[in-house]
Design goal:
Length: 288
Amino acid sequence: MSETATLAEKNRQHWDQLATSYDDKAWAQDIVRAIAAGVEDNREWIGVDWVKKDASGPSSDREVRMLDYACGPGNVAHTLFPYVTQVRGIDLSAGMAAEFNRRAGALGLRAEEFSAVQGDLLADPATQAGIAGQEFWGVDLLTCSLAFHHIEDSALACGRFVERLRPGRGVLCIVDLVPDGRGHGHGHGHEDGHGHGGGHGHVHNNDGPGNSTELTDSNQSPWGQYPSHASDSTIAHGGFTKERMESLLKAAGCVDVKYMELDKELNFGPDMANTKRRVFMVRGRRAE
């Protein structure tokens, strides 16, 4: 991977390589299940006006559309699909978008109701033809699960997320990691790549008061005393505090901002003692 590649390009290349295998490990599958359970258990807290579906389809003609950013293979999207009428995924990695669509097809889901494309919401809008269609705008829910720490400009990201929401009712929900507070970033282990629950997840280092930790030295592993990993160069932040996330969402135009942490630490790697991290969820509704 080129040393001069942008962070987005490093992420694109890294996740293309891991698209079909990133959740093969048992500990990664545990994360997938834990994040899915956290989202499902707190669905009412997220605050979308969900629909109910049965074998015959939605219980009403009302549309509830979801956009899953950094969607990975679609774990969070599959969790919430029973309560929405349409899911669109966007991922920097074409390989991840293809894996999202492959898994959806294996379940018999139709592309018009559940599909993903390659795209970058933070790129120059003039280059975003693939995600410019009406189906990617005015959504009722935008999720970003265990990927926010890979995004360099957190404020720009939140702004781009919120502008895709339906005014007055669209909800942004971000799932990511709480700073570990140990100063080294024993954050989460990656063996041959790394594991994550919803989109792409893992983080390292601790957060300063009200801020995210910036990983500015590309030659220093965010794992501190641990060996460097292939994913180190894809990380922008070492976790986010409650204050930082609430500030980001409010500055982007959200109201009714709420924050919570999942009940238990998750093991982000095979080393159960040194790869535990806490996970938060934050949500906000786009103002009118």
